[in-house]
Write a structure and sequence with these properties.
The chain is of the alpha/beta class and 189 residues long. Helix content is 36%, strand content 15%. It is globular and about 40 Å long.
């Protein structure tokens, strides 16, 4: 399973990025394979065709599990994250990717923001979001036990979805000679 964390915070190496890593480790018992600190992509996000942005998009799109994190800015996710998400094709850009929308905030007033604002964008890009979005207090996100209620309810659904997309990718890998999808062996399921 390929696990990637994405942090859309205007500050590099932010608490948002740290929180995404904590969620990835809590779900998978290991570190993420890739980390995309969106602010590091710089002005390449303002147009199309930047090689570093294209590489980051390819990494996210090839992931089985994608933790997409943002601080809460003006009651929603950040503009820098929006610039990154705009780089993906609508409907297919994150097809086959299981995503977890994660937002950090100062208080409970915006606790529904991951589900109301970030999750719909991820689904529009083709991601599967099988769990409730995750909202964490920016002062307590790293405290022991903070994730326990969410993990108890949603970890198995998230991992099952990510495992099934990973298995589907393996079963439909293109054959080098023809470029046609390899046949899916239904006897293995």
């Amino acid at each position: 399973m390929i696990v990637t964390v994405v942090a859309g915070n205007p500050k590099p190496a932010s608490r948002t990025l740290d929180a995404a890593h904590i969620v990835a480790r809590a779900l998978t018992d290991r570190d993420a394979d890739h980390a995309i600190d969106v602010i590091a992509l710089g002005p390449g996000l303002l147009g199309w065709g930047d090689p570093a942005v294209a590489d980051a998009v390819a990494i996210a799109a090839a992931s089985d599990l994608l933790i997409v994190a943002s601080p809460t800015f003006k009651a929603t996710y950040t503009g820098i994250l929006k610039l990154f998400l705009d780089q993906f094709d609508t409907g297919t850009g994150l097809a086959g990717v299981t995503a977890v929308p994660l937002m950090l905030g100062a208080g409970p007033a915006h606790a529904l923001a991951p589900d109301l604002l970030l999750k719909p964008v991820l689904v529009e890009l083709g991601a599967v979001c099988p769990a409730q979005g995750l909202y964490l207090g920016d002062k307590v996100y790293d405290q022991p036990g903070v994730l326990d209620p969410w993990l108890a309810r949603w970890a198995s659904a998230v991992l099952s979805s990510a495992d099934s997309t990973s298995a589907a990718d393996t079963a439909t890998t293109a054959t080098p000679a023809t470029g046609d999808p390899a046949p899916f062996d239904r006897s293995a399921s």
